[in-house]
Design goal:
globular, alpha/beta, 15 helices, 419 residues, binds pyridoxal-5'-phosphate
Length: 419
């Protein structure tokens, strides 16, 4: 840190060469590789700037315009802007933009709406559910009596009859829909009917398809769910964090108190500003174009992989996500992910429905087009990516094949620079 009259301020990141080099390395990694991990995206410069702004200096706690600390004039306006934009984008009445993550959004809603030990019904992980929906290793798994529904063995889609049977049997106070590896549309209206039959709340966690909902390319959960949670950094292409949306004013205090003081303290105002930016971007016409491209590219990627011999879970996708069953290739998800990474293709290993393997070495891969389309890839780029992936899955230990593809990946990436 260099002394300057009036205070201690270092120069920019260059003043910490050790960290600077690491961040530069990460930038190069993002620039030179194809990012296919479904929980990632490449944000706009404006989102980056908001998150790196002086807002990091400001501490506020509690609800907007009712803070526990002074000096909140701009903080209040910024959070209110994010809330207004969120409500406009998703056409709903209330938003809480404070959750530091998707997990916190879920934990806060559960804390606000449920009593300790209450029964809940959610999708299991291998069927595509999320760990924050009651997995035994999490607080939600410890604090509530969790029952899981799965998918049909035949269609690999949610079996509404099973959900209904389990709901009648276990009388949940909350039913959760939405997951991290479910590539298909979900029938929210039928789920609401089931929830009403057993007087349960319906919560939809739209983390992976929020951007598509915003673009009206996926069924809108808000008319049916009592409460909707999401992350803001996946298909929404925004700041790292979470959000809660709802319409019923009766729920407002319980949801807000569940988030603060329930599971969080002060607001990460710089992240809230980043969320305001991404909601503003998502309200523009270009975002619908982006989402449409990402959805079309995912359908094409699924087709190419299928033509290359892979089995696509559910036979395709309605979202920007493609779930691949590797059984045809005699290779596990972890080995496949490592081979693909050598070629500059970043994917994640994933469980598939009825997987007989473990989360560490599962039978599947999860891919997404979110980040690729954000840097300008279109259908022809994703057609090539699908072919490269299939070639590697056929010959995961053929180093000359991997090298040839790595070269093609690198050429593609240099044609589409980021930042
Ligand atoms: C990614 C995801 C989350 C969790 O988000 P974090 O920000 O990592 O806590 C929650 N729910 C679903 C369905 C997700 O896909």
């Amino acid at each position: 840190m260099t002394w300057r009259q009036g205070g201690y301020f270092s120069a920019g990141l260059e003043s910490d060469p050790e960290l600077f080099d690491l961040i530069e390395g990460e930038l190069r990694r993002q620039q030179n590789g194809v990012e296919l991990i479904a929980s990632e995206n490449l944000v706009s410069r404006c989102v980056l700037a908001a998150q790196g702004s002086v807002l990091t200096n400001k501490t506020v706690e509690g609800e907007v315009f009712k803070r526990y600390y002074g000096g909140a004039v701009y903080a209040d306006e910024i959070e209110a802007l994010a809330m207004t934009r969120a409500c406009k984008l998703f056409n709903c009445r209330f938003a809480n933009v404070q959750p530091h993550s998707g997990t916190n959004a879920n934990a806060g809603v559960l804390l606000g709406l449920l009593k300790l030990g209450a029964p809940i019904l959610s999708m299991n992980i291998s069927a595509g559910g999320h760990i924050s929906h009651g997995h035994p290793a999490t607080l939600t798994g410890r604090d509530y009596a969790v029952t899981h529904y799965g998918v049909s063995r035949q269609t690999e889609r949610i079996d509404l009859d099973e959900v209904r049977d389990l709901a009648i049997k276990t009388r949940p106070h909350l039913i959760i829909a939405g997951g991290s590896a479910y590539p298909r549309e979900i029938d929210f209206s039928q789920l609401r009917k089931i929830a009403d039959e057993v007087s349960a709340y319906l919560m939809v966690d739209m983390a992976h398809f929020a951007g598509l909902v915003a673009s009206r390319l996926y069924p809108d959960p808000l008319p049916y769910a009592h409460v909707v949670t999401t992350t803001t950094y996946k298909s929404l292409r925004g700041a790292r964090g979470g959000m809660v949306l709802w319409n019923d004013p009766e729920l407002t205090q319980r949801i807000n108190h569940g988030i603060f003081p329930g599971v969080q303290g002060s607001v990460m105002l710089h992240a809230v500003a980043g969320k305001a930016v991404c909601f503003g971007e998502a309200l523009r016409e270009e975002f619908i174009f982006y989402s449409t491209q990402a959805q079309c590219a995912a359908a094409l990627l699924a087709q190419k992989l299928s033509a290359g011999g892979a089995r696509i879970v559910t036979g395709g996708t309605d979202t920007t996500m493609v779930l691949v069953d590797l059984s045809n290739f005699n290779i596990t998800g972890d080995t496949a992910a490592k081979a693909l990474e050598l070629a500059g293709l970043a994917v994640n290993k994933n469980l598939i429905p009825f997987d007989r393997r473990t989360p560490e070495s599962p039978s599947g891969l999860r891919l997404s087009t979110n980040a690729g389309v954000a840097r300008g890839f279109g259908v022809s780029e994703f057609a090539a990516i699908g072919e490269w992936i299939a070639r590697i899955l056929h010959n995961p230990s053929d180093m000359s094949e991997i090298k040839a593809i790595a070269h093609a990946v690198s050429t593609l990436c240099s044609a589409f620079p980021i930042y």
